[in-house]
Specification:
The protein has one helix at about 45-55; strands at about 10-15, 20-25, 30, 35-40, 55-60, 65-70. It has about 80 residues and is mainly β. The protein has one domain. A 6-stranded mixed beta sheet has the order 1-6-5-4-3-2, with helices on one face. Strand 2 (about 20-25) and strand 3 form a beta hairpin. The protein is globular. The N and C termini lie far apart (about 25 Å). About 20% of the residues are buried.
Length: about 80
């Protein structure tokens, strides 16, 4: 599933692959040994927005079908 959110900026874009992250028993969350953070897979726009607001590392598919991982910049600081 691709997301419809556009023009998001990464605070940090990770070069890891989802399958290389540690499985922690939750299908939508993996652990990165490099940065020592959980990475949350986002199935839709709402999940992506919520995880960005919570300042979490995320994983999602872009419009080209490429999975992107990293931490996005929350440009809506009022929330």
């Amino acid at each position: 599933m691709s997301l419809t959110i556009r023009n998001c900026r990464f605070a940090f874009k990770c070069d890891k692959e989802w399958i290389s992250l540690d499985d922690i028993g939750n299908d939508d969350v993996r652990f990165c040994q490099t940065c020592q953070k959980e990475v949350h897979y986002c199935n839709d726009d709402d999940e992506l927005i919520q995880n960005i607001k919570l300042n979490r590392c995320v994983a999602f598919f872009n419009d080209n079908g490429q999975m992107l991982l990293g931490q996005m910049i929350n440009t809506n600081q009022s929330e």
